[in-house]
Design brief:
By secondary structure, the chain is α/β, with parallel strands linked by helices. The chain has helices spanning 11-22, 39-49, 65-75, 96-116, 151-170, 192-202, 221-233, 269-280, 304-310, 318-341, and strands at 2-6, 26-31, 55-59, 79-82, 121-127, 174-179, 182-183, 205-208, 215-216, 219-220, 256-261, 267-268, 285-288. A seven-stranded parallel beta sheet has the order 3-2-1-4-5-6-11, with helices on both faces. The protein is globular.
């Protein structure tokens, strides 16, 4: 198939593209290479993809309507995976317009591109952040998610609503993937594994928010990539048992689906830190801080729908995933750290 992967120079985008290329798909990857974090890391990821004969990279912004229209008209993609987004909960408090432009305007441009050019399936990154103020665990796609606590979360919830509209109006099959805290090789330098690992090795203190009383459903990148590709292969279909008297938030009478992709094993933040310490053979100096605005105390994924419909669930245990992360960091990340954090 000919597949568009947006955000291809990103953490998840690179790994998804690698899987698609390995099985023989043609991948056109786009990215605007913005400076939310240092583009040197994005360029290094692209170098891993360039040797593949089936890969082409185009620099462009999904918020650029003309660029997106021309791209879809020229390439005639079979399927589309949207991993381009302005990420980060905390940054959304500082620069909300970045989220509006990319996550809302850009997302709308992609939906229009799919609508007018016969795309078979549109798969897009949502986020566990949509659960917001929900406290019932584990988080289920069948729960209401109308109380986001950050603009980032609100933009991802809006993506799901926009996708449903296009599934309803135009019969466009769409599937949203609510990713739960992703970690692993080539991860982002603004996320906790990189921040913690680099600080511990350099003897700097690490910031531990909410005094460590937090839980995250840490999910290894290889599981995220495999789950994404498997979902791409299963085109969204209507739910035959959907009731408009008791509407199910996770499905529809239209060809629309939403899935959680998480490890289904929430981990205490202090346990996560200890696992990194053990892999490094060093102890962190900890700076305990209060809760950050926009954060949530815990995340925990119910993945039963993903298991039932796609036959897949993440299975990488934290100790194994962290060991692979640390091995990668020692080989590559430590050399990249001054460039991406400077």
């Amino acid at each position: 198939m000919k597949i568009l992967v947006t955000g291809v120079a990103g953490f998840i985008g690179m790994h998804v593209a690698q899987l698609l290329l390995a099985r023989g798909d043609e991948v056109v990857g786009i990215d605007n290479l913005n400076d939310y974090y240092n583009p040197n890391l994005k360029l290094a990821r692209l170098e891993c993809l360039k040797p593949h004969a089936g890969f082409r990279f185009l620099r462009g912004d999904i918020a650029d309507r003309v660029f997106v229209e021309d791209l879809f008209a020229a390439e005639r993609f079979d399927r589309v995976i949207n991993l381009a987004a302005q990420p980060g909960v905390r940054y959304s408090l500082k620069n909300p317009y970045a989220y509006i432009q990319t996550n809302l305007v850009g997302f709308g441009n992609l939906l229009e591109g799919c609508r007018h050019n016969g795309v078979e399936h549109f798969v897009y990154a949502s986020s566990s952040s949509v659960y917001g103020a929900n406290t019932r665990m584990p988080f289920s796609v069948h729960d209401n998610v109308d109380h986001p606590v950050s603009l980032y979360a609100a933009s991802k919830k809006a993506n799901e609503l926009m996708a449903h509209t296009y599934s309803h109006l135009y019969g466009l099959p769409t599937t949203g993937l609510r990713y739960f805290t992703v970690y692993g090789p080539w991860g982002r330098p603004d996320m906790s594994p990189w921040l913690f690992t680099s600080a511990i090795l350099e003897g700097r203190p690490i910031d531990v928010f909410n005094h460590g009383r937090m839980q995250r459903d840490f999910t290894y990148i290889d599981d995220i990539a495999e789950g994404t590709v498997r979902v791409l292969d299963r085109i969204a279909t209507p739910n035959p048992t959907f009731s408009t008297d008791a509407p199910d938030p996770g499905s529809s009478y239209a060809p629309y689906r939403v899935y959680n992709i998480g490890n289904h094993q929430p981990v205490e933040l202090m346990t996560f830190i200890q696992t990194i310490e053990q892999a490094l053979g060093r102890e962190a100096v900890k700076n305990f801080l209060p809760m950050q605005p926009g954060d949530v105390v815990a995340t925990y994924a119910d993945v039963e729908d993903l298991k039932r419909d796609v036959g897949f669930e993440p299975k990488t245990v934290l100790a194994d995933g962290i060991a692979r992360w640390v091995a990668w960091y020692r080989q590559y990340g430590a050399a990249l750290t001054p460039a991406v954090q400077g």
